[in-house]
Amino acid sequence: MNNDKPTIGITMGDPASIGPEIAIKALLNERLYDVCNPIIVGDAGVFEDIVSRLNLPAKINAVKSVSDAKFVYGQPDVYDLANVDMSQLKFGEISAMAGEASFAAVKKVIELALAGDVDATVTGPINKKSVNEAGHHFAGHTEIYAHFTDTKKYAMLLVEDNLKVIHVSTHVSLRQACDLVKKERIIQVIELLHNGLISLGEKNLKIGVAGLNPHAGDSGLFGTEDDGEILPAVEEARKLGYDVDGPIPADTLFSKAATGYYGGIVAMYHDQGHIPFKLTGFKWNAEKQQMDSVKGVNITMGLPIIRTSVDHGTAFEIAGKGVASPDAMVLAIESAIQLSKHRMQKA
């Protein structure tokens, strides 16, 4: 591989979704070819169809190995898994075939990264129901990566402008999320966030930790987790040398973080972190009845390989219509490049 340009493996996502469209549109950004060698992993036929359907200025180069890729702008390389029957594929529909194809792309890109054939991985959106109908029972990308890399300590980090949000728990019920707010896990996530900020080149390493309950429990009036688990974790993290505040009521923490006061913040559960994050990065145009932009990158921290992703779903309702924004995919690729360079420098 060219050490000056990291090789980035990009998964197709669900073939019935906007995944293939945003992958191709992202690679129509010529600047990306100046800073990385991108290769898509998926079914070449899906990409040939989307290029033809949307009349995009690209010619697919199907390959069977990374070494065969040309990395030429306008001729996106696709590591062809040849596993989608185009006569059966229907945009916007859940199916075991689409789930199997999207899962296979993720598994393959993980294998390529573990083998050193790509320097980082970027994932397109998958449909969890389709993946499960294909017989692969995972809650999402994060869990797939953890399983196939044998990783026990990991966390989801969301990045968009000033907001960098990591989660104590993600794809579990709200009831389970409350039970998972434990001192040891919070300290672990603070460490993962600190390391992630450094990897992203962030200079501000000050971390804010959200409370779980309203008013961060208000001295036990609204729950005991804040005083019993979160505060001891923050105090221990300070002893370990981390610059950290908390627990801070979530309704004030995120507005303060958006100004750049904190380099990163720790959310206690999925929606506590995702809602303010998406309010920042997702811009809906009411007049056009479509998104003007969808920004935000999802990074899995703690893995032995680099994984970034768009932080939006499959958008089945607009799949194949040519209106999907590639903004988040471009940002995910750029983050993968930054993380790759940081890892190369450390090596």
Supply database-style keywords.
18% strand; 347 residues; alpha/beta; single chain; two-stranded antiparallel ribbon; 2 domains; 39% helix; Isopropylmalate Dehydrogenase; 12-stranded mixed beta sheet
What percentage of residues falls in helices of 4 or more residues?
25-40%
Biggest beta-sheet profile: 12 strands, mixed
The coarse overall form would be globular
- Mean pLDDT, nearest integer? 92
Low-confidence stretches: none
CA(first)-CA(last) distance: 15 Å
Number of DSSP helical runs: 12
Q: Give a count of the beta strands, DSSP E runs of length 2 or more.
A: 14
Question: Which class do the helix and strand fractions yield?
Answer: alpha/beta
Indicate the proportion of strand residues: 15-25%
Strand order of the largest sheet: 3-4-2-1-5-14-13-6-7-10-8-9
Along the chain, the helix and strand elements come as: EHHEHEEHEHHEEHHEHEHEHEEEEH
> How many domains, as an integer?
2
CATH-derived architecture of the largest domain: 3-Layer(aba) Sandwich
- The assembly state of the depicted protein chains is single chain
* CATH hierarchy class name of the largest domain: Alpha Beta
Q: What is the name of the CATH superfamily of the largest domain?
A: Isopropylmalate Dehydrogenase
Q: How large is the radius of gyration?
A: 20 Å
CATH topology of the largest domain: Isopropylmalate Dehydrogenase
Protein name: 4-hydroxythreonine-4-phosphate dehydrogenase
Organism: Mucilaginibacter yixingensis
Pfam families: PdxA
GO molecular function, one term: oxidoreductase activity
